[in-house]
Specification:
Elements lengths: L14 E6 L3 E6 L3 E6 L4 E2 L2 E2 L7 H16 L7 E6 L2 E5 L2 E13 L1 H8 L4 E2 L2 E2 L8 E8 L2 E2 L7 E2 L2 H6 L5 H24 L2 E13 L2 E5 L8 E5 L3 H7 L5 E2 L2 H9 L15 H19 L11 H17 L1
Antiparallel strand pairs: 1-2, 2-3, 3-7, 4-5, 6-7, 8-11, 8-12, 8-14, 9-10, 12-13, 14-15, 14-16, 16-17
Helix pairs in contact: 1-7
């Protein structure tokens, strides 16, 4: 099996601090830039699984970079460069403590709440008589607060503004950007025979401007359906063919793991990890529409350290 990068401990020039997330490790350079390393860690049910997935970090980083570049004309974003297949370097922004989730279809947690009788989600009124995987008359935004630990919490637009979590002006900008990004992502997905079902965006602020940060339109942050067969499956009430990391969650559920206390993560054999890697590569090729070219195997950490250090040196010239 190919080498994986699951932990990082870099010391880049000008490094101030590092934040280790579930999947990404973010290095602060001179309180001005961020070096975001997409590791091969994989998480599900808010738990980091014990083994890495070969090439997963490269897949996520390159998908996000593709979409950040493809939307830069409609929304300003943090990305400056991708000096390594697993790394994006960009502007440091002060992140808003809200995630903007936008849904084009009634599925996932929204469907579960709807099924339980809920007709209002994050302050948005939902139409009566909808079915699972049905398209909304127009996409709805259902924000969540970003939690330092545990699960993010649903919150309404009105509560966000009333509690001063985000100013009215900034929230309206985030809302406008969210709709524009989703429209562009939907358009790009349609050209690949896909439906962008729902996704999340994160924003920050720099020099008084609202800026898109983090990743966008990756299978870790978005749900895609295959357009071919969508109508037939919907009419018959059958599950949709999906392009997301839902298959990992399903495997865990089948092995009695949902991240609850006392549950054990099932054994992740090399064969299983390779099969997940193959699925991620398939996702990349379908979403981006290009053949995936694996980065050189071997000492991944040394390669990243060199590539990032060389890039940072060019900024000083």
């Amino acid at each position: 099996m190919a080498t994986t990068l699951v932990n990082t401990d870099f010391h880049f020039p000008g490094q101030q601090s590092v934040y280790h997330g579930k999947v990404r490790d973010v290095y602060d350079i001179n309180d001005d830039l961020m070096v975001m390393v997409a590791t091969d860690r994989i998480s599900a049910f808010d738990v980091i699984l014990p083994k890495g997935i070969p090439f997963k970090g490269q897949v996520l980083n390159q998908i996000a970079a593709t979409f950040l570049d493809a939307t830069a004309d409609i929304v300003p974003n943090w990305k400056l460069a991708t000096p390594d297949p697993m790394v994006t370097v960009g502007l440091k922004c002060e992140g808003f403590r809200v995630e903007m989730i936008i849904r084009g279809y009634l599925t996932g947690s929204a469907w579960r709440e709807y099924q339980a009788g809920c007709r209002s989600l994050c302050g948005v009124t939902l139409p009566e008589g909808m079915k699972e995987n049905e398209r909304f008359p127009e996409p709805i935004i259902t924000p969540t607060t970003k939690a330092d630990a545990g699960h993010d919490e649903n919150i309404s637009r009105e509560e966000i503004i009333a509690q001063g979590i985000v100013s009215k002006e900034d929230y309206e900008t985030m809302e406008r950007y969210t709709r524009a990004l989703f429209a562009r992502g939907t358009e790009m997905a349609a050209k690949k025979g896909l439906i962008l079902v729902d996704t999340k965006y994160e924003f920050g602020k720099r020099d008084g401007k609202v800026i898109l940060i983090d990743e966008i339109h990756t299978p870790d942050s978005s749900r895609y359906f295959y357009a071919d067969g969508y109508e037939e499956r919907f009419a018959k009430g059958e599950p949709q063919k999906q392009l997301s990391k839902e298959f990992v969650r399903q495997w865990l559920i089948e092995h009695d793991f949902m991240g609850k206390a006392g549950q054990q993560v099932p054994e992740m054999t090399d064969d299983y990890c390779q099969s997940v890697a193959n699925r991620y590569i398939e996702l990349y090729e379908h979403i981006v529409g290009e053949k995936f070219i694996p980065a050189e195997d071997g000492d991944i950490a040394s390669r990243i350290e060199k590539n990032v250090t060389d890039y940072l040196a060019t900024l000083k010239r």
